[in-house]
Design brief:
The protein is mainly α and 111 residues long. Helix content is 61%, strand content 8%. It has helices at 28-36, 41-47, 53-65, 67-90, 94-108; strands spanning 11-15, 18-21. The termini are far apart.
């Protein structure tokens, strides 16, 4: 008998903006980035040794079956990431500002 599986067996969809591998902080986009770069499933597994091969295949299958929705999801993730980075660059944390000031001060010393 063939066992049926559901994507919820492998992925956490509790946040509509984030699809993570169940029990991990790894997003489906991390696995798919390697897939898009031409990695084979066993090569992707080498990058994520804490996962099982069936999870890698589940991510690829999820993409192939739901390509348009996953492409939209990935584009939205990239856009949010780019926006967060731009905000971080525009207004760095006080720690970053102190580190930059320290680096500039160090660079100005010429013994």
């Amino acid at each position: 008998m063939v066992e049926t599986i559901a994507l919820t067996d492998y992925f956490d969809f509790s946040n509509p903006n984030i699809i993570r591998v169940k029990g991990h902080r790894i997003g489906i986009e991390h696995i798919l980035d390697y897939y898009f770069a031409g990695y084979q499933p066993d090569e992707i597994l080498n990058e994520f040794p804490g996962l099982e091969l069936k999870v890698i295949y589940a991510a690829i299958t999820c993409y192939l079956v739901n390509q348009q929705a996953i492409d939209t999801y990935l584009a939205n993730r990239r856009q949010r990431s780019d926006q967060a980075y731009a905000e971080w660059v525009a207004k760095p944390s006080p720690v970053i500002e102190r580190l930059r000031a320290f680096r500039e001060k160090q660079a100005s010393y010429h013994p």
